[in-house]
Write a structure and sequence with these properties.
The chain is an alpha/beta fold. The protein contains eleven helices and seven strands. The protein has a five-stranded parallel beta sheet with strand order 4-1-5-6-7, sandwiched between helices. A two-stranded antiparallel sheet has the order 2-3. α2 packs across α11, α4 packs across α11 and α8 packs parallel to α9.
Length: 280
């Protein structure tokens, strides 16, 4: 037993093939991570910045370690929206100020707070108590015959453009990856009112709105010669409705992550998606 244990200890762990490829392709990597709480790793141990809810195991940190970054600056911050890229966020300086002319890699995860997705979820939960079997939240956001969330997405698109343009201006050598949002609710539209008190009809509606947001981000990435990273696809089947150990989105604040945010497994998935994009 002792000999077997020693041999097992001596044998190196198999290296992740995507990460190995990324390291080979990386060369000198000077990496800056920008974004909101879905990038900062809000609530994931170990929190290294209480103001911004930044974790040492968020996907930017995982990517930086995987590619052996020469330098790594993580300014992701919970609550950030596109205005906080060029402007101060309370006591946090503008995130774009972290960029340098010699920066070679930038990840950006932003847009959800421009839509006030947290407020939308809160409103949907409250309305779900009033009409649990309908779609009261959808109705409240489409009262005048227009999709209010869709309109917010349209308004956010040029703001994403402006951020991407400024990244290219400040760091013209950088490869820019625009990271989308993971699946919060079941992709098949099923409800889990025992876990989240949305009305049954609002689960598929919220899914569609999130997909619309990700579609907009992918289009803006194409316009500004950035790479869109799909965090949604790999996370299907790991949404907030799944049991602990399967879900990557926490239904409430826990030791794993903040409520309605990805946990460590979700960040590992996004890191793998980013690394896969670097090899293409």
């Amino acid at each position: 037993m002792a000999g077997a244990t020693a041999a097992a200890t001596a044998a190196p762990a198999p290296e992740h093939p995507v990460r190995r490829a990324a390291q080979r392709a990386a060369g000198e990597v000077r990496y800056v991570a920008l974004g909101d709480s879905y990038s900062s790793g809000l609530g994931i141990p170990e929190q290294t910045d209480s103001l911004c809810g930044r974790s040492s195991d968020n996907y930017p940190s995982l990517v930086a370690r995987a590619v052996g970054a020469t330098s790594f600056t993580d300014v992701t911050c919970a609550g950030a929206d596109t205005r906080d890229m060029a402007g101060r966020q309370d006591s946090a300086p503008p995130q774009l100020d972290a960029l340098r002319p010699d920066t070679t890699l930038v990840t950006l995860g932003i847009g959800g707070n421009d839509l006030d997705l947290g407020g939308v979820i809160t409103r949907c939960v409250l309305l779900g108590y009033l009409a649990p079997n309908g779609s009261p939240c959808k109705q409240s956001y489409t009262l005048l015959g227009t999709d209010e969330i869709g309109s917010r997405i349209g308004t956010t698109a040029p703001r994403i453009d402006a951020v991407l343009a400024e990244i290219h201006a400040r760091s013209p050598r950088a490869r820019v990856l625009l990271v989308g949002y993971p699946a919060l609710f079941p992709d098949d539209g099923t409800a889990c009112r025992e876990t989240v008190a949305l009305a049954t009809g609002d689960f598929p509606w919220f899914r569609d709105e999130e997909k619309q947001l990700n579609t907009m981000l992918a289009r803006q990435a194409d316009v500004y010669d950035a790479t869109y990273v799909d965090a949604y696809g790999p996370s299907v089947g790991h949404d907030v409705c799944k049991p602990a150990g399967v879900r990557w989105i926490e239904p409430g604040d826990s030791a794993e992550a903040a409520g309605f945010h990805p946990d460590a497994a979700g960040h590992r998935s996004t890191a793998d998606a980013v690394l896969a994009s670097l090899t293409r």
